[in-house]
């Protein structure tokens, strides 16, 4: 393969000139150069240079020079390209570094965003669980309120049934006793009398004075010595306290199977009265049915009759008055039938009440007849010299006895 490089061509030319010179000068080497005047050796007086060879040499030198200049241009271009490549490489490195930094920043931002999203999802999950719990609680509350509403509806229905029974309470006979009220006391209404039963301990006495101030003097003295002939007894006076209801709540309902029979004869034997009423109200023609139970109320003397079926009592209550054959030899007795209301105490609050006119005497020994000792106590506490006053009533319970003191209308009675 032919080599067209200028340096190789110049080498070939120098080799050719040397060969020709050696052949011209008898095989002796001739020194050549790139200048116009060849260098002469010290042993030679002159040198022969061909004009054609010189022209060729100059031409070659010119071509070499031009080639060198061309190579310089190429070299400069290469240097410039190298600078451009180095700059481009630096730019690429800077761009890569900037891209790396941006990628790192973007990665950090994405991680933070993922963490925020995870936190937001966790918070949303917690809120969702809280809302679900709240929904469950509200559903339970709604169900409870619905149950309470259903219970209230039942109570309203029960109250409506009670309201439809205006004669549920048996009638009472009343009489005007001549007492009148004026001013602020002249208000209408019902009056409920107190009925308090107090169990007295043995060796105690209850004494009530007409004036509350006398009771307070007796209490202030506290210790009292009562001379009974050759001996005496020492008593202690204490305030009398009793528990009384301050608030009572009753739950009443109409018994669907029972009726209350009032205005029955009081002089009739109880067993016979119950039998005649059961016979009457067990007959279908009288609107009755099979009787399950019948008994007399001790406090009022009214009769409660309970049927097996729950449809009988309502029909009898609507009729109200019935003619019952209590005694075959007498005229039929007219009795009154009303629905039987049954009540239960749902709430009872008690409070302690001090009787202002009553004093409790304790530590009373049994040294004489109970009646005589009670008279001696009354005599002692009636004397003003002993701090006493007018005695309204006195009750003495000797040791070993059980007595119930009944308080009614601000008076004291006894029940053995």
From TrEMBL:
Ranges in a coiled coil: 82-162
The cross-references to Pfam families, in alphabetical order and at most eight, read: NID
Per UniProt, residues of the NID domain are 205-292, 303-392
Question: What organism is this sequence from?
Answer: Albula goreensis
- Subcellular location(s) per record: Cytoplasm; Nucleus; Secreted
What is the first-listed, main subcellular location in coarse terms? cytoplasm
Q: Indicate what this protein is called per its UniProt record.
A: NID domain-containing protein
Q: Which GO terms describe its cellular component?
A: cytoplasm; extracellular space; nucleus
UniProt lists the family membership as follows:
Belongs to the NMI family.
Gene3D superfamilies linked: 3.30.70.330
UniProt record, GO biological process: innate immune response; regulation of innate immune response
Report the superkingdom from the record: Eukaryota
- Keywords attached to this entry: Coiled coil, Cytoplasm, Immunity, Innate immunity, Nucleus, Secreted
């Amino acid at each position: 393969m032919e080599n067209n490089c200028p340096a190789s061509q110049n080498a070939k030319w120098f080799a050719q000139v040397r060969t020709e010179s050696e052949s011209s000068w008898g095989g002796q080497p001739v020194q050549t150069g790139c200048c116009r005047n060849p260098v002469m050796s010290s042993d030679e007086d002159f040198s022969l240079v061909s004009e054609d060879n010189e022209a060729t040499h100059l031409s070659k030198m010119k071509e070499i020079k031009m080639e060198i200049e061309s190579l310089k241009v190429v070299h400069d271009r290469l240097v410039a390209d190298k600078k451009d490549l180095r700059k481009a490489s630096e730019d690429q490195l800077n761009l890569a570094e900037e891209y790396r930094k941006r990628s790192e920043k973007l990665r950090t931002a994405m991680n933070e965003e993922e963490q925020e999203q995870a936190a937001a999802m966790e918070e949303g999950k917690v809120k969702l669980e809280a809302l679900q719990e709240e929904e469950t609680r509200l559903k339970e509350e709604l169900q409870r309120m619905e149950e309470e509403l259903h219970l209230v509806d039942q109570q309203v229905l029960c109250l409506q049934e009670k309201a439809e029974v205006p004669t549920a309470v048996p009638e009472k006979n009343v009489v005007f006793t001549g007492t009148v009220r004026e001013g602020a006391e002249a208000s209408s209404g019902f009056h409920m009398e107190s009925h308090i039963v107090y169990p007295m301990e043995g060796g105690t006495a209850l004494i009530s004075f007409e004036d509350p101030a006398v009771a307070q003097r007796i209490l202030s003295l506290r210790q009292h010595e009562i001379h009974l002939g050759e001996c005496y007894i020492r008593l202690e006076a204490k305030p009398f306290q009793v528990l009384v209801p301050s608030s009572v709540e009753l739950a009443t309902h109409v018994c669907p199977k029972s009726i209350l029979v009032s205005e029955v004869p009081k002089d009739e034997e109880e067993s016979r009265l119950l039998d005649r009423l059961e016979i009457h109200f067990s007959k279908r023609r009288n609107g009755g049915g099979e009787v399950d139970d019948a008994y007399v109320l001790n406090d009022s003397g009214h009769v409660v009759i309970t049927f097996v079926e729950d449809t009988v009592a309502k029909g009898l209550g609507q009729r109200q008055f019935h003619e019952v054959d209590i005694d075959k030899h007498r005229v039929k007795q007219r009795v009154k039938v009303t629905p039987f209301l049954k009540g239960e105490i749902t709430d009872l609050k008690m409070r302690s009440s001090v009787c202002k006119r009553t004093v409790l005497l304790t530590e009373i020994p049994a040294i004489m007849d109970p009646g005589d000792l009670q008279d001696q106590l009354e005599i002692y506490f009636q004397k003003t010299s002993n701090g006493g006053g007018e005695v309204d009533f006195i009750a003495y319970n000797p040791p070993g006895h059980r007595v119930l003191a009944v308080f009614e209308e601000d008076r004291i009675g006894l029940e053995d």
